[in-house]
């Protein structure tokens, strides 16, 4: 039995992961479930799949959870705090890294350093600490498998030995597709007034609120561009972003002979999750067949640079290297939180990012502490700007 820890089990990816795992009880044992503070959801998950451990980041909520479990016959042990999140990540064979945002950095790195099979949904950890993250993967021998649907698609379309560099394998470029989000066709003059609920109503995917806002600004595609550079050992200019509103093609790889390979499927995260859990074999995910006749058409367009300034900012950060993308990521987390809280307009999200990027200098991080320092400084700078806007 493969021992699996699900970091972020109560979120959108976590719930889909448990759905897939529960279809294959003969193969996977759920070792630990971990989340921030959602007691009700994790309580039901514990009763349904009896993990050895349940970890909540929030110590008070962990107390509440332990109290509630005492009234059941559950033998799951409740733990609390970040150190325990890292411990259950390091102890498993396979770790689904699906905490949202910078909070996922240390637990994901703990899994990497322990040499686990790491299923990476938490793109922010790779965006923040790409070089350190990838050298830890090399050192520990961890198996890194992408869960982000685009990266999982690219992984499926690349030759197996892509680690030796894309050009050496005859790859010309990567076509990173994105739906363009809910505001692809909204008149530019109306963007300033859009609400968090409108931003979170994604046309194709059902996701957590932070990534939904990132999809609406296309910062998600920007973070994915940076993520792809690290995962596939390539330069930003080898990746072209293509808007594909139907989200049926999840990304493509073009080879020097003119062949373009695409991975297609329903927009349902259980496909990449099952692919990564089962890799290199295949297993059932619960996802329905893609009906191409019903789908009828696939459209493509170039991203609108005026509408989506976050995409340009992410490309600039990818080109700058160093701590630039950690700075961008942290400023984005602050701006998105402010937007979701009704304290910042949608169109001011890129304004905050651009100003934070211009104010803070760039350098090469030598250790995770440097990344965490860049993250903290960007949060302070972004919060100070919010107060002025
Ligand atoms: P979500 O908001 O639905 O869930 C987030 C999870 O993280 C929850 O379980 C929450 O309890 C946990 N969490 C939050 N802060 C934490 C903390 N400080 N310590 C421990 N746990 C904490 O988010 P999601 O949509 O499931 O996304 C999770 C990650 O996967 C993100 O990095 C996102 O970019 C990535 N991703 C998501 C999708 C998707 O379809 N939802 C697709 C691709 C990539
Ligand atoms: Mg994605």
TrEMBL record:
The species this protein belongs to is: Spongiibacter thalassae
Q: Its catalytic activity?
A: 2-C-methyl-D-erythritol 4-phosphate + NADP(+) = 1-deoxy-D-xylulose 5-phosphate + NADPH + H(+)
InterPro entries per the record? Answer: DXP_reductoisomerase, DXP_reductoisomerase_C, DXP_reductoisomerase_N, DXPR_C, DXPR_C_sf, NAD(P)-bd_dom_sf
Known role: Catalyzes the NADPH-dependent rearrangement and reduction of 1-deoxy-D-xylulose-5-phosphate (DXP) to 2-C-methyl-D-erythritol 4-phosphate (MEP).
What is a GO molecular function of this protein?
A: 1-deoxy-D-xylulose-5-phosphate reductoisomerase activity
Q: Where does NADPH bind?
A: 10-13, 37, 122, 124, 208
Top-level taxon of the source organism = Bacteria
UniProt pathway annotation: Isoprenoid biosynthesis; isopentenyl diphosphate biosynthesis via DXP pathway; isopentenyl diphosphate from 1-deoxy-D-xylulose 5-phosphate: step 1/6
The identity of this protein, by name, is 1-deoxy-D-xylulose 5-phosphate reductoisomerase
Entry's family note:
Belongs to the DXR family.
């Amino acid at each position: 039995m493969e021992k699996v820890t699900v970091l972020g089990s109560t979120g959108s990816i976590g719930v889909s992961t448990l759905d897939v795992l529960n279809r294959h009880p003969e193969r996977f044992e759920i070792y630990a479930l971990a989340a921030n503070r959602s007691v009700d959801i994790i309580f039901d998950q514990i009763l349904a799949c009896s993990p050895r451990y349940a970890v909540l980041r929030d110590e008070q909520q962990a107390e509440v959870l332990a109290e509630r479990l005492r009234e059941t016959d559950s033998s799951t042990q409740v733990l609390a705090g970040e150190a325990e999140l890292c411990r259950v990540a390091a102890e498993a064979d396979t770790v689904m890294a699906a905490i949202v945002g910078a909070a996922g950095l240390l637990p994901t790195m703990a899994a990497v350093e322990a040499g686990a099979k790491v299923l990476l949904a938490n793109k922010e950890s790779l965006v923040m600490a790409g070089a350190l993250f990838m050298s830890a993967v090399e050192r520990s021998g961890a198996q890194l498998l992408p869960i982000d649907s685009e990266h999982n698609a690219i992984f499926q379309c690349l030759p197996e030995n892509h680690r030796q560099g894309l050009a050496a394998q005859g790859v010309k470029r990567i076509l990173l597709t994105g739906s363009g989000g809910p505001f692809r066709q909204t008149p530019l003059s109306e963007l300033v007034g859009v609400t968090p609920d409108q931003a979170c109503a994604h046309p194709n995917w059902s996701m957590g609120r932070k990534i939904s806002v990132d999809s609406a600004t296309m910062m998600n595609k920007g973070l994915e561009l940076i993520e792809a550079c690290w995962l596939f050992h390539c330069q930003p200019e080898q990746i072209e972003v293509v808007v594909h509103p139907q989200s049926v093609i999840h990304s493509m790889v073009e080879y020097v002979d003119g062949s373009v390979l695409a991975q297609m499927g329903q927009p349902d995260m259980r496909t990449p999750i099952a692919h990564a859990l089962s890799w290199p074999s295949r297993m059932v995910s619960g996802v329905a067949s893609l009906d191409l006749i019903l789908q009828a058409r696939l459209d493509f367009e170039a991203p609108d640079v005026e509408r989506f300034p976050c995409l340009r900012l992410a490309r600039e950060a990818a080109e700058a290297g160093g701590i630039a993308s950690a700075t961008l990521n942290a400023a984005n987390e602050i701006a998105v939180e402010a937007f979701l809280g009704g304290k910042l307009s949608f169109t001011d999200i890129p304004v905050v990012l651009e100003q934070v990027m211009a104010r803070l200098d760039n350098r090469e991080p030598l250790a995770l502490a440097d990344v965490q320092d860049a993250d903290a400084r960007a949060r302070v700078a972004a919060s100070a700007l919010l107060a002025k806007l």
